UniProtKB/TrEMBL annotation:
<dbReference type="InterPro" id="IPR000864">
    <property type="entry name" value="Prot_inh_pot1"/>
</dbReference>
<feature type="signal peptide">
    <location>
        <begin position="1"/>
        <end position="23"/>
    </location>
</feature>
<protein>
    <submittedName>
        <fullName>Proteinase inhibitor I</fullName>
    </submittedName>
</protein>
<dbReference type="GO" id="GO:0004867">
    <property type="term" value="F:serine-type endopeptidase inhibitor activity"/>
</dbReference>
<keyword id="KW-0732">Signal</keyword>
<dbReference type="InterPro" id="IPR036354">
    <property type="entry name" value="Prot_inh_pot1_sf"/>
</dbReference>
<keyword id="KW-0646">Protease inhibitor</keyword>
<comment type="similarity">
    <text>Belongs to the protease inhibitor I13 (potato type I serine protease inhibitor) family.</text>
</comment>
<dbReference type="GO" id="GO:0009611">
    <property type="term" value="P:response to wounding"/>
</dbReference>
<dbReference type="Pfam" id="PF00280">
    <property type="entry name" value="potato_inhibit"/>
</dbReference>
<keyword id="KW-0722">Serine protease inhibitor</keyword>
Length: 107
């Protein structure tokens, strides 16, 4: 019985992590960047190269590449967020394995 429960839990964890890796639409990035240009955010605005990178490492890279970023939030993919735009904030969405699953953008 314990073996079946362990297998079910492992399967659930693996299935959840693979689903989040495929959840991003490629069209999300450019539309967001155009919106941010309207707000005149300065510096680097997106980091597509950070997909799959551990979130704590990604946070350090973002803060180093854009000194105007003072709020880097690490959130589980699918977490609810506010829709306001802030030029000093980047949200890092990760999976249960702690890897970035969406392109981090200023906002």
């Amino acid at each position: 019985m314990e073996s079946k429960c362990a297998h079910i839990i492992v399967f659930f964890l693996l299935a959840t992590s693979f689903e989040t890796l495929m959840a991003q639409k490629e069209s999300d990035g450019p539309e967001v960047i155009e919106l941010l240009k309207e707000f005149e955010c300065k510096g680097k605005l997106s980091w597509p190269e950070l997909i799959g990178v551990p979130t704590k490492l990604a946070k350090g890279i973002i803060e180093k590449q854009n000194s105007l970023i003072s709020n880097v939030h690490i959130l589980l993919n699918g977490s609810p967020v506010t829709l306001d735009i802030r030029c000093d904030r980047v949200r890092l969405f990760d999976n249960i394995l702690g890897a970035v699953v969406q392109i981090p953008v200023v906002g």
